[in-house]
Specification:
heterodimer; A: 257 residues; alpha+beta; five-stranded mixed β-sheet; two-stranded antiparallel sheet; B: 584 residues; alpha/beta; 20 strands; globular; binds flavin-adenine dinucleotide; binds iron/sulfur cluster; binds FE2/S2 (inorganic) cluster
């Protein structure tokens, strides 16, 4: 068990442990909007000295903390787990805290704007209430009938694996706000709500699938999905969002889940 | 200014707040005020597991769990509370499962369990599998499941409302709870919430350290608000440094990694924990492992060009096991370090993780105004509170447990209090303190910046109040913090607006961190012994004669308006376990 592992030192580990001071100049191009001050949207460039291993969130903090305190965005955990900081970075939805500068070509200006299809309230902050309303509409909780067992409900490891992928959702809205159908029709539930419905429909313990499927059979439900895969590409948790939506569609037809 | 009236107000929507809300909403008209959307709370970052002696995979019982908790806490644990924690753990886990939590399963379909630091069979014989888990996303699943059940119960949330003050009204010489004052982020408006009962569940305060596993938003708001209103803070010197944070970043890599067989190694590849904890090795309690890591580093056996970290080695574990049991933390290593944990060891260092101390409560979650007197109508639960079930060092998986057991208890107790009692009158001009605070910051023209002061605070805390402390380093910390508090008086914010003014709120949060850091340092300076997470190189032994007692820190304001900290002490509740030397 105690065999030394140093022979396994890879180039990647050497690079990770490199403490030499690395610095590059980047341009962060941020879409600014504050209706309290003006109805105009402006794009502002910030030149920053950064380590390429830092995150876009670090760059935003650098602006806020050292240049302009009024730059506004949401964030909390800073490691891709709370879902606060989904934004459009170089035209693609990502979490700012999970995007390293070196991975998005820091030589060119890095554009940062709020996620699309939602009302912008200030700078990168959008109104999340409709998004959470769509989530609530799919009845995102375990529905069971009959008497509760004294101990836990049994579930095989296989049944548990059936819906594992969709349990990972952090409700960041990266998927929903990358969906062209949602951009055109804000009433569409959007992929995130369907992902969360999927999480229960395919949970062997749940007995509310019929109710939930009725909700999703609505004209603003799953049938609007045109399988563009934007959502799957956008999901920072690597959830196969499109596949989940397809599975829900199939369940609606076959009533088997 | 708006005034609202609710029977029960809960401050915070992490695990503790939502567990309380599920209970209190069924029993009383409840509002939950939270500065983050509920699912953004840091409970979601918890990884490894939640302890309960279910005995699903091997023999176990709540008495062993109680013992481990008390020993893990270096005998500063209140033993009656620890017993409740361990006994109610079983139902707490089963309740979550019934609410829908997708635990990992055994081949028989039961909730699976894994090993974790300090959890043992039969009083220390060997590691026991007690941690119930869902991959390395246990906290995420708890937070989601509780939120889902809040949706089901129709819990009323006020999202992005920052609670900045607690209202207490004196009735017949007794301070009673009247409500809270909150700042609405979207509009800058101030809201007074009149309530019969208030539950603080606002989480931890790790952001006064630089290398930390805590979110940017963990700034000890609840503790600071209570402290400013004259309530004591208990055992603030006890802060846990988790052994395995990603080097320099502090992002946590769960102890579950070692529970699954991961090994800590120094630059020679040596499994050094064998020297420090012959029985439990890498799964000794966290304070022991963190000190061992720093000892290795200090003695020149650290890794990397600067010898300032060690390795968490997972390379001998099958990739399938890593994918199934530790998918998130292996991804963190890939994303943030660019390395492949299948084949590379992961550079780690201890990271500031958990506040054992906080607002003192009894086992019903009632807040104490001194060693014995409760504040009628005021409750606290979760990391903001100190029951004390964690004593001088919390065992891994005992906090997710704590938030469920004591969140539930506080929610029930608060709602029942609200149904038995009437509103007390609001104090005159209830929002005045908050209005002053907000207005003066918005109008301030000083030349100090929040970020600079915060950085300086984090530097001094990391240097002087971390794993190893001495009189000298702690005095330095006290001095530095005093100076930073002076500078804070000249702080100004650039954003003068009302709408989503996070600039202003960061300034307020910094004020909270400064107050709490000072309490930590002053309490630590006075504790001339080493116990659990508090290690004094100048007093390396535990001193049960003089210090087997809880610190109670009070804010005092002199006639000239000068502030100071008064320290008092509270006895530890001992039931059946006599203090022994702590060996792993
Ligand atoms: C990375 C990490 C991993 C962990 N892993 C484990 C583990 O495996 N097992 C374990 O047992 N423990 C673990 N812990 C510890 C445990 O997760 C936390 O102690 C626990 O989740 C805290 O829960 P809480 O409800 O008290 O606070 P939080 O979940 O932090 O919630 C605090 C809430 O208070 C609100 N709030 C804060 N200030 C205000 C204010 N001024 N006004 C209004 N609302 C406010 C916030 O919006 C939030 O909703 C881990 C901790 C971390 C950081
Ligand atoms: S499915 Fe993925 S992208 Fe969509 S909300 Fe959940 S985590 Fe975010
Ligand atoms: S800050 Fe939490 S996901 Fe990015």
């Amino acid at each position: 068990m105690s065999t030394p592992t140093l022979d396994k030192h890879s180039a990647a580990l050497d690079a990770a442990e490199n403490t030499a001071f690395e610095q590059i100049t980047i341009t962060l191009r941020v879409r600014r909007f504050n209706p309290e001050v003006s109805d105009e949207v402006t794009w502002v460039d910030y030149q920053l000295e950064m380590d390429p291993k830092e995150r876009v969130l670090d760059a935003l903090h650098k602006v806020k903390w050292e240049i302009d305190g009024s730059l506004t965005f949401r964030r909390s955990c800073a490691h891709g787990i709370c879902g606060s900081d989904a934004m459009r970075i170089n035209g693609r939805n990502r979490l700012a805290c999970k995007t390293l500068l070196k991975d998005i070509n820091p030589e060119k200006p890095i554009t940062v704007e709020p996620i699309k299809g939602m009302t912008v309230l200030k700078d990168l902050v959008v109104d999340m209430d409709p998004f959470f309303q769509a989530f609530r509409d799919v009845m995102p909780f375990l529905i069971t009938k009959g008497n509760e067992p004294t101990r836990e409900r049994l579930q095989s490891a296989e049944d548990r694996a059936r819906f594992d992928d969709t349990t990972k959702c952090i409700l960041c809205a990266a998927c929903t706000s990358s969906c062209p159908v949602f951009w055109n029709d804000g009433q569409y539930f959007g992929p995130a709500a369907i992902v969360n419905a999927h999480r229960f429909i395919f949970d062997s313990r749940d007995e509310g699938a019929e109710q939930r499927l009725e909700v999703l059979n609505d004209k603003e439900g799953v049938w609007r999905c045109r399988t563009t895969f934007n959502c799957t590409d956008a999901c920072p948790r690597g959830i196969e969002v499109t596949k989940a939506i397809q599975e829900v569609k199939r369940a609606l037809i076959t009533r088997r889940f | 200014m708006q005034i609202h009236k609710y029977d029960t107000v809960i401050v915070g929507a992490g695990g503790a707040g939502m567990r309380a809300a599920i209970e209190s909403t069924k029993r009383s008209r409840t509002a939950v005020l939270t500065k983050l959307y509920p699912t953004r709370s840091h409970t979601g970052a918890a990884q490894g597991g939640m302890a309960a002696a279910l005995a699903n995979v091997e023999e176990d019982n709540w008495e062993w769990h109680t013992f481990d908790t008390i020993k893990g806490g270096d005998y500063l644990v209140d033993q009656d509370a620890a017993e409740i924690l361990a006994k109610e753990a079983i139902d707490a886990v089963l309740d979550l499962e019934k609410m829908g939590l997708p635990f990992n399963r055994t081949p028989q379909g039961r909730i699976d369990q894994r090993r974790f630091g300090g959890h043992t069979r039969n009083h220390g014989e060997a590691a026991v599998r007690r941690a119930c888990y869902a991959a390395d996303r246990t906290g995420h699943m708890i937070l989601q499941t509780l939120y889902q059940n809040c949706v089901k119960e129709g819990v009323e949330f006020f999202n992005e409302f920052y609670v900045l003050d607690l209202l207490l009204t004196e009735v017949d010489g007794v301070k009673r709870t009247a409500g809270v004052v909150a700042y609405e982020l979207a509009t800058g408006e101030i809201h007074v919430f009149q309530a019969k009962a208030v539950v603080f569940a606002s989480g931890g305060t790790g952001k006064f350290f630089k290398v930390t596993s805590n979110a940017h938003t963990l700034t000890g708001d609840g503790q600071a608000v209570a402290y400013r209103r004259g309530l004591p803070l208990e055992d603030m010197e006890f802060f846990q440094f988790h052994p395995t944070g990603i080097w320099r970043m502090g992002i946590l890599l769960t102890e579950g990694a070692r529970g699954e067989g991961g090994i800590l190694r120094n630059k020679d590849g040596e499994r050094f924990m064998e020297k420090y904890a012959p029985v439990m090795k890498d799964l000794a309690s966290r304070d022991v492992v963190s000190r061992a890591i720093y000892t290795e580093i200090r003695e020149g056996r650290g890794c990397g060009p600067e010898g300032d970290h060690v390795y968490l080695d997972l390379t001998h574990l099958p990739p399938e096991q890593l994918d199934a049991k530790l998918p998130d933390i292996t991804e963190f290593a890939r994303t943030y370090l660019g390395i492949e944990p299948y084949t590379d060891p992961v550079p780690i260092q201890p990271t500031a993780h958990y506040a054992m101390g906080g607002i003192p409560t009894n086992v019903e979650g009632e807040v104490l105004a001194d060693n014995t007197t409760v504040v009628p109508g005021l409750y606290a639960a979760g990391e903001v509170a100190c029951v004390s079930v964690h004593g001088a060092n919390r065992l891994g998986t005992n906090s997710l447990l704590d938030i469920n057991v004591f969140g539930r208890r506080a929610g029930i107790a608060a709602a029942e209090f609200a149904s038995r009692n009437d509103f007390v009158e609001l104090p005159e001009d209830p929002a005045s303190l908050v209005v002053d605070q907000v207005e003066s910051l918005r109008d301030a023209t000083g030349n100090e910046r929040v970020a600079e002061i915060r950085k300086a605070l984090q530097e001094t805390m990391d240097t002087n109040a971390m794993v190893f402390r001495t009189e000298q380093t702690l005095k330095q910390a006290v001095e530095d913090i005093a100076e930073l508090k002076q500078r804070y008086n000249n702080v100004s914010v650039q954003d003068k607006g009302k709408r989503y003014n996070t600039d202003l709120l960061e300034a307020i949060e910094l004020g909270n961190l400064l107050d709490l850091a000072e309490v930590l340092a002053v309490s630590a300076l006075a504790r001339k012994e080493s116990r659990g997470g508090h290690y004094r190189e100048d007093y390396p032994n535990r001193d049960d004669v003089n210090f087997m007692r809880h610190t109670m820190a009070y804010r005092e304001v002199g006639e000239d308006g000068a502030e100071s900290i008064r320290l008092d002490y509270k006895p530890v509740v001992q039931t059946r376990y006599q203090p022994m030397e702590r060996k792993y």
